[in-house]
Triosephosphate isomerase (Curtobacterium subtropicum), 255 residues
Amino acid sequence: MNRTPFIAGNWKMNLDHLQAIATVQKLAWTLKDARHDHDDVEVAVFPPFTDLRSVQTLISADKLSIEFGAQDLSQYDSGAYTGDVSGAFLAALDAKYVIVGHSERRTMHGETDEVVAAKTAAAVKHGLVPVVCVGETGEEREQRGAGVVPVEQLRVVLDAVKPSEIVVAYEPVWAIGSGQAATPEQAQEDCAALRRGIAEAWGDDLAASTRVLYGGSVKSGNIAGFLREPDIDGALVGGASLDVQEFAAIARFRQ
Ligand code: PEP
């Protein structure tokens, strides 16, 4: 099964809408300048909500081959949910993707597996492709074994919704923003376990077509090692996605 590699940049709470325009323009030029034929790699950015309209306008006006998505969405469609953003609004902005269950949402905003499942269902309902993040702490991996906690987290989502397309991001908590990435072998173990979990829940065909990403201190110097692993189909990149040259170098991991 051919799974197009996916390089996704999670900007977190960085870059206002003016900086977002400059960054996306520069990214498009950098990918083009390097004559990087990125038809064989999908590149997407995940800016803060307030940037999305500007990014959408730029990408559609200049016909850039960069996708975009949001970093979160509400599990509800509309109503008295101050500060939340509906998947319907993201779909109206032509967002293709939405990140769900990032570990910063789980730890800082108390999002449970059930909330993550409800948000995934909301994304699917509105035609967005969810990028579902799962991952364990170092202690959980040591005590319970590779893949056990991430597969349990994903299972709650898989039992609640069966989308035609989903992206799964394995992000060990200890590797996010720490500068200490998992080894490709460690990441492969967990990504393979996640793919087996998808096969058990949804069957082999969906497991074979679902892209599983690794995330956690990815940079241009370590991306190739991850992408050589059979069950790793790309990366969710945080800090390094804010540096255009570095992010473009990650997207050109084959060169
Ligand atoms: C992330 O926020 O999803 C992430 C992986 O961050 P970083 O690349 O900075 O570790």
Notes: The first helix runs from residue 17 to 33.
